């Protein structure tokens, strides 16, 4: 053995530090067009510090302990979502048509669904690991049982989040479930069948939208349907619901190759400091700046994959897979909606968008990955463990 000590991944921590700098600089630059007196850049620094404190606390937990408390974390998250639905508007106000936040005087707003994502990852990892330990010889029947377990565990938070309603976060919950299903060890024929069924459902939804769009109102509200229409032709609706997307596309495009320079953004994009922070980066630092950000995200995901491959613990690898699923979808969906590739869903850009709950949730997930790297021991001869 080389040294019987932890291999804390300093590279991953350094990447997080770079994102903190980019986030605070971009948020500071976006503040001049905001109708609020708050210093959101300074608040983001405070949230980052709070997130690093949480990361330090998580570091001292062993994964056997995390596995034991996973069910309590899951139940706590479901309880918070349930209380949120039942809470009066004085505590949980309806904002932009959604009841997604608790409002605490002196602290700000807390969004329970951001933490529920991480709690669900940990709980599903425990559920899958325990199932595979119990059924060492896997069959189609045991695989179907596992699928039922995973779906049953995902449904309560999914339904509660849809009741808010928050379709964007509900999509993230589904992606986490799908991502962990893919690495759960179930037979490839079942995965292929599920993929085919998903494509068929998507095809039916597209057909309904083209032929009889009013049917979509059975499970979408008119605002969500209008968002789809404004996504398909944002400049047609620029004076209304398409204003944010149209200006977002203009902002990113006007940055050209090198951008307009720091604090020189000229296109007004509503709430650019939160879900549309990528527009500030695109306009002020151009294609070069956005390429650096996307490259950092690739490196971030790559480091998580390397950490997972170096660790031989099934539970730990499943957690890493869940974190990868969550972050990858967040990144793709947010950047995609900012440049008009996908509809606007209100999903923040991890580690960059302003928002305490979103940032704390992302840092909590990454703290688990850092914990995995710290608990992986490297040997001179033989495999890692």
From TrEMBL:
Localization per record: Membrane
Key word Membrane present: yes
One BP annotation, GO: cell division
InterPro entries assigned to the protein according to its UniProt record, in alphabetical order: Cell_cycle_FtsW-rel_CS, FtsW/RodA
Coiled-coil residues: none
A GO CC term attached to the entry: plasma membrane
Domain of life where this protein originates: Bacteria
Transmembrane intervals: 12-30, 45-61, 73-95, 144-161, 167-183, 188-210, 285-306, 313-332, 352-372
Protein topology in the membrane: Multi-pass membrane protein
GO MF annotation list: lipid-linked peptidoglycan transporter activity
UniProt protein name: Rod shape-determining protein RodA
Lineage, broadest ranks: Bacteria, Bacillati, Bacillota, Bacilli, Bacillales
